[in-house]
Amino acid sequence: MDVLSSTQSRSIFLKQKSTNAVPKIQSCVRVLPRSIDVSLTHQLFDEIPVSDTFAWNNLIQTHLTNGDPDRVVSTYQQMLLRGVRPDKHTLPRILTAACQTNNSFFFGKQVHGHALKLGLSSDSYVISALLELYGRLDGADAAKLLFCKSARRNSVSWTLISRLYIMEDKPGLAVDMFKQMVKSKAEIDPLALVTAIGACGILKSLPEGRNVHDIARKSGLEGDVLVSNSLLKLYIDCGSIKDARAVFDRMPSKDVISWTEIFRGYVKNGGFNEGLKLFRQMSMEGIKPDSLAISSILPACGRVAAHKQGKEIHAYLLRNGIDMNVTVQNAVLDMYVKSGFIDSAAKIFAGMKERDSISWTVMILGYSLHGQGELGVDLFCEMEKNSRVQIDQIAYAAVLHACTTARLVEQGQFYFNCISSPKIRHHALMVALLSHAGLFHEARVFMGQHKLEGYVEVLRALLDGCRIHRNMPTAKRVIDQLCNLQTLNADNYVLLSNWYTSSAKWEMVDKVRETIGDMGLNPRKGYSWIEFRNKIHVFGTGDVSHPRSEKIYWELQSLMKKIEEEGTMLNADFSLHDVDEERECIPIGHSELLATSFGLISTQAGATIRVTKNLRICGNCHNSAKAISKIVEREIIIKDPSCFHHFKDGFCSCADFW
């Protein structure tokens, strides 16, 4: 602050020199910049007739509000030197500042001594400040020792000790403190309940949480919005969406946090449709969602069948001017990637002024999932040049996935070696990269070097390569290993059965199927679904239950006839396919083709068909979809667990590597 400004500030105070100046001191002191000379501030107080405790407290509070604990301490020292007696409002502020200064614990103990000498050590405000001081600087146990010696205990002090234990990652002790508080018949307030509920959430303990919930109900505080929101979070974090919904439905009033928590709960538990339904209900009740609410609901739209809702929410964001921070933009980006609109995602990414590691990672993985691995690797190279973005293990996993999609072995090996402590996920991706490129010997050597034979994720990555390159001997060894590692996984036995079938070993086929029956295993069934006019149409293998089944099958038969006339060869090999029922079903009865046919007969010419399948698409349907896309001159997008297959003009974006 320059001399002129200092003089002007001084003149302001001098003009206010009167017996009623005290109420004006606080407002005047607030305009003083932090750089003003401390001696000037105290000189100004010397010139004010009324320099009692109230005025000093105002100055101390102003420095505290300005985040300047050192000035709080120096002001307190000047206050004592001038003979002004501190009161119960002074000491808590000084103790708060003591937590933030150098040599703070020594100074805090001195202030504790002042409290004892001044007879203020039993004041509830002073006690709370002392507990905070000892808890932060000497540990929660030290604070509890002081608490136990205190004659006056109230809800604030009980809760403070609990909160200190939570800060030390000791939620169990925080819950114990709450139980003692209840036993002591202390008054239970919303903050005490919120703290105890939070501790139960950290412990992931439903029984303890329900006990606290019961106390909240008996105390008549269950309907308090802070308590209810904490209960919502507790039940969601503990995986009990049923309990969370019961709390939500009983809430007399809900704020945006309440709605956001219930969205998060349903999305976390896969209840996407219910989450979207509640989002619409929230809008109808006139509650405007904030950026966090939007970020919580958008993952529900990260599915092919929910792309319309995702676009609507994105439009809502733009229309209503909701803060498009990087978290929200990442959620929008992720939604477009996962719902099948990679071009829209690319536009969002290109328009982002600020990008964090999540932004880059989502886009890199997005390109890979949509068969554009080269673009994913190029984007990672751009990310490396950005010094503000830290490349983490998730980003390395994304670029390894992109290298696998593009079969860029050397680059993948280079990036793998850049990872300081690679996880099993990274090792599995390296095995996938090598096996997708047909380098089975190198894959086996890599697995041996890193002792990966016992990891299911790694073996399945190797098996995917065997499926692509028809490496049947290696596939048999891998299937046997999977059966030994996962004895109760029906998919492994289906793989084994299909392998024996392809080798015409019928006795072994019967034996494996008998094993599946004896063990009571249930092989997974294949389903595909497609959205049309805001309704989801689901198809199973050989499904004839749809009202338009006759037309659906007729359309497929017509298309198959054209495919046959064009001389296109289909792939009827199911040797390494893990869906048992599809081998026995006629090819046109597979769920993905039924859903595709329904899309073709239900939509206008030229419209893109978007289908999702719960299991891997078989080779026959893959070849059929390629041929159909050329015949009907439409893009057909089928998402299976491995990737998005963009079929267009007789080709697939996966280049037949899936």
Could you describe the largest sheet, including whether it forms a barrel? 6 strands, mixed
Query: Helix- and strand-based class?
Result: mainly alpha
Q: Rg, please? A: 34 Å
Shape: elongated
| Amino-to-carboxy terminus distance | 67 Å
Tell me what the structure shows.
This protein has 658 residues and is mainly alpha-helical. It is built from 35 helices and six strands. Strands 2-1-3-4-5-6 form a six-stranded mixed beta sheet, covered by helices on one side. α35 (619-632) links the parallel β3 (609-613) and β4. α8 packs parallel to α10. The longest helix has 17 residues, at 549-565. The chain is elongated and about 105 Å long. The termini are far apart.
Question: In brief, what are we looking at here?
Answer:
With 658 residues, the chain is mainly α. It contains 35 helices and 6 strands.
Can you lay out the helices and strands and say which pair or pack?
Elements: H1 3-15, H2 22-30, H3 38-46, H4 53-65, H5 69-81, H6 90-98, H7 104-117, H8 124-138, H9 140-149, H10 155-167, H11 171-183, H12 190-203, H13 206-218, H14 225-237, H15 241-250, H16 256-268, H17 272-284, H18 291-297, H19 307-320, H20 326-338, H21 342-351, H22 357-369, H23 373-385, H24 393-406, H25 409-418, H26 424-436, H27 440-449, H28 456-469, H29 472-485, H30 490-502, H31 506-518, E1 527-532, E2 535-540, H32 549-565, H33 580-584, H34 591-602, E3 609-613, H35 619-632, E4 636-639, E5 644-648, E6 651-652
Parallel strand pairs: 3-4
Antiparallel strand pairs: 1-2, 1-3, 4-5, 5-6
Key traits:
658 residues, six-stranded mixed beta sheet, disordered N terminus, single chain, 35 helices, 6 strands, mainly alpha, 4% strand, elongated
